[in-house]
Amino acid sequence: MRAADSLLSIVVPAYREGAHLAGSLRHIAEIVGQTGHPYEIVVIDDGSTDDTWKVISEASAAEPRIVGIRLSRNFGKESALAAGLTYSRGRAVIVMDADLQHPPELIPEMVRLWREDTAEVIEAQKLHLSHEPLPTRVRRRIFNGLVRRMSGFDLKEASDFKLLDEKVVRAWNQMGERSLFFRGMVPWLGFRVVRIPFEVATGARDDSNWSWRELVNLALVGLTAFSAVPLRLAAIMGGLFLMFAIGASIYTLIYRLLGNAQPGFTTVILLQMFTSSLILLCLGVIGEYIARIYDEVKARPRFVVTECVDARDHGH
To answer: Which of 64, 230, 254, 300 is the most buried (most CB within 10 A)?
Structure first.
């Protein structure tokens, strides 16, 4: 049983959330206060171009338990999460979105399960509603299917809405890679997980609204960061095509010796197009891995903080 006076940290990445952020923070604070635990809310402004930082600064001035971290530019949600996990101090850290698509009402149950030492990771699992558009369901299935088959991690209906014990946070922060994939990195750590369901509110801005480009980029990061399967597939395809080429050569040689050589101009052109496409595909796969290596060897920071409002360092 974990202590009832353990500090809770709520990590909230925000990008252009100024219109509703103040209300979201008040609602989150109200629900977290019901747990009876001391708490802090760490809000990360991921280079917003609206008044998000102004809202965070005003909220922190009114409530010292709200900590504001401002990144120098838009590094992306994964890096903003990394900043939040770095600056949080709680014995348990809850990660959630700023637009309340992750219902704060689940927080007391997550904290209860954590206090009972049920698991080190309490993950909220999305229940998708029937009104979700067909293209959204197709995109999600393709994305989850690729990640599951290539990396071995089943992220079906997973979300970033999680409670992490402090030892999970320490282990996560020790993972030094720059190509971040929060949903994949947490299960990779191997801690005990308990899942509780929730429904995304109708009209909430869910990650299902991500573009194809964003989903493809996230899938590529997830696959190349956690699996060498694409590289092996490239080698397998090359081996299969080599066997096909050997068989075709034997077939052609036999017909040649029998005096039945075929014209085959169209066949040659098609084979050249096929082999060229296969070579370019394999080079593309290799290029993705080289790009990840390039990002890692530069060893640039995951994020850059340009401003911070933190009353914790002033006796509050």
So the answer is: 230
